[in-house]
Amino acid sequence: MTRTSDDETLAAFAAAVGAASLGEPDLNRLIATARQVREDARAVAALDLEDVEPEARPQVDLPTGGAES
Amino acid sequence: MIASAPHGDLAFLGLAEASRRLAEGGISAVDLTEAMLARIEALNPRLNAFLAVEADRARAAARESDARRAAGRARGPLDGIPIAVKDIVWRAGRPMTAGAKRPVVERAPEDATVVARLEAAGAIILGATGLHEFAYGVTSVNPHHGPVRNPWAIDRNPGGSSGGSGAAVAAGLAYGALGTDTGGSIRIPASVCGIVGLKPTYGRVSRHGVFPLAWSLDHVGPMTRRVEDAALLLEAIAGADPADPTASRRPVPAYASRLGRSANPPLAGLRVGVPRGFFFDRAEPEVAGIVRAAIDRLAGLGAAVREVALPKHEASVPAALLVLLAEAAAVHARRLAEAPGDYGEDVRARLEQGRLVPASDYLAAQRARAVVRRELAEVLREVDCIATPTTPTTAGPLSEGASGPADAARRAMTHFTRPFNLTGFPALSMPCGFTAEGLPVGLQLVGRPFEEGTLLAAAAPLEAALGLTARRPTA
After folding, report:
1. Which residues of A touch B322 (CB under 8 A)?
2. How far separated are the first and last CA of chain A, in Å rounded?
3. B366 and A10 in contact by Cβ < 8 A?
4. Are the CB atoms for B11 and B36 separated by under 8 Å?
5. I want to staple B151 with a disulfide (CB 3.0 to 4.6 A). Which of A50, B54, B105, B171 is the partner?
6. Are B443 and B387 in contact, with CB atoms under 8 Å apart?
7. How many helical (H) and strand (E) elements, i.e. helices and strands, does chain A have?
8. Are B32 and B22 in contact (CB under 8 A)?
9. d(Cα B27, Cα B31) in Å, to the nearest integer?
10. Which stretch, A1-5, B225-229, B282-286, has highest mean pLDDT?
11. How many helices (H) and strands (E) in chain B?
């Protein structure tokens, strides 16, 4: 697996959070999965989240206009 | 094999039909329980649906049920009905493995609320069903307990994570089962095993005594062969619970009795939304075609079907994944640090991945939850439910292992289900057809919070129109 400078940052981060204590092959896997996390985060960041507060749980008790709500 | 196993006619009765026969006196709870136990003995070595069978306890409960009925004290429609429970749910005094290498608890201190409610309703617990390790995966190929097999094709997986519950119900080893669903773990096995699975609204069913995967995504719900049966089970397990602060205090509707109300045509007044893009573009063409045909049947039953747009929906998949990764890593932090070797490779990799989610990304995903919830709620002002394929494909081969064919494919398997764990809206999967290969395909109906009754009322006439319930697996 060819590592980029970005991957080296990920590897350092992985080591820092203690997720990379399992040797070189696992470090490569961690880098791959960290890349995926970054892709997911980028997809989420594409939404307009300005002025939106986090919902720690689904807010299902808000009225939605339905017959049973 | 399944077709030639004992007590086939009794085993494939719907739960509600078995209940009616119990009430009429034609059969007893002991009859039903012995039939299930005989079938489990005959078929479980092949399917691996149950991790633990509690025959003595089930027989004793069946005798007690028959005695209550004889004395005129039957407790309701579930009294005397054999049910299976996913092995991630506490049963007092019993071990609970969560599909892990070692039991998570050797002796559960009490029944989970859902089990206590089933037993209070007179249901007979047959035992604990198999699952993907810690419910963290969608194949139920378990490195510690062996793979659960799909009753429709023995060389395929039953989906997951509630694969044992799905296989047990599909093969006629139980009249219903409990599953849990964090990203599709009730609906995916329901879809690929050809049964009904209902992920209720977040908070509709207590999670007390259920081992968590991700607190803000976890749901407990019924898996059955018929829509009416799911309604009966949901009625029994839903409702407020002081032991679970997320359990809603809203009254529980009489879901099953509402199904009896007939209109002409049956679905007159129901508005069904079909999302453009995403769901149907990503499903295999044969699956998409079968689901579209089922939606046409909804229209034929009187529903008003129209296209709807959910442009922000696609972002809900990565958002839900980030929440799942982070919360699951937190749930397992101590266990993973102390005994990383106890985990299967695929689950350990996901837990390690979860440690790499920055807090800022976790919070961004929670903000995304608000955005996609609002969009979905807005669409559900215009329609009463949304119809999609449950999964993009049918059951995968066992040979693909625990992770499935590749990480991308595993992620795709949950793309249609996972968003509704993030929003907490109720979603039901029901069989809607079979591929040329004979594999089941599921239709997913998604509704407004606490409107499980709308989904069940839409599904029941479609089930009758499709006429698939007599078809039995042959693996």
Report:
1. 37, 40-41, 44
2. 53
3. no
4. yes
5. B171
6. yes
7. 2, 0
8. yes
9. 6
10. B225-229
11. 18, 13
pLDDT tier at B150, thresholds 50, 70, 90: very high
Q: Which residues of B138-175 are buried (b: 16+ CB within 10 A; e: fewer)?
A: bbbbbbebebbbbbbbeebbbbbbbbbbbbbbbbbbbb
Among all chains, which residue has been given the structure tokens 């069978």?
Answer: B53
CB B228 within 8 A of CB B460: yes
- The pLDDT assigned to B278 comes to 85
Report whether B132 contacts B138 (CB < 8 A). Answer: yes
Q: CB distance A36–B315 less than 8 Å?
A: no
pTM of the model: 0.95
Task: Write down how long chain A is.
Answer: 69
Distance in angstroms (rounded) separating the CA atoms of residues B459 and B2? 27
Radius of gyration for chain B, computed over Cα atoms and rounded to the nearest angstrom: 20
Q: How far apart are the first and last CA of chain B?
A: 6
Per-residue pLDDT tens digits for B272-320: 999 988 899 889 999 999 999 999 999 999 999 999 999 998 899 999 9
Main-chain dihedrals φ then ψ at residue A15, nearest 5 degrees: -65, -40
The torsion angle over the Cα atoms of residues B267, B271, B277 and B283, rounded to 10 degrees, is: -20
3-state secondary structure of B84: strand
Question: Which of B49, B457, B76, B420 is closest to B261 using CA atoms?
Answer: B457
**Structure-token pair, residue A16:** 């820092």
The C-alpha atoms of residue B267 and residue B302 are separated, in whole angstroms, by 5
Q: Do the strands B196-199 and B271-275 form a parallel or antiparallel pair, or are they unpaired?
A: unpaired
Instruction: Write out the two tokens for B393.
Output: 């494909």
CA distance A68 to chain B (A): 6
How far apart (Å, rounded) are the C-alpha atoms in residues B277 and A51?
A: 28
Cβ distance A64 to B253 less than 8 Å, yes or no, reads no
Task: Say how far apart CA B173 and CA B23 lie, in whole Å.
Answer: 21
Specify whether the CB–CB gap between B212 and B321 falls below 8 A: no
Give the tokens for residue A58: 């689904």
- Distance between CA atoms of B370 and A19, rounded to whole angstroms? 30
Token code pair at residue B96:
């609970």
Scanning every residue of chain A, which has its alpha carbon at the shortest distance from the alpha carbon of B423?
Answer: A58
**Is the preceding peptide bond at B419 cis, omega within 30 degrees of 0?**
no
Residue B185 a catalytic site member: yes
DSSP-assigned states of every residue in B273-306: EEESSHHHHHS-HHHHHHHHHHHHHHHHTT-EEE
Question: Residue A51 burial by CB count (10 A; 0-12/13-18/19+): exposed, middle or buried?
Answer: exposed
Integer Cα distance of B231 and B194 in angstroms: 17
With contacts defined as CB-CB under 8 Å, which chain B residues touch A23? Answer: none
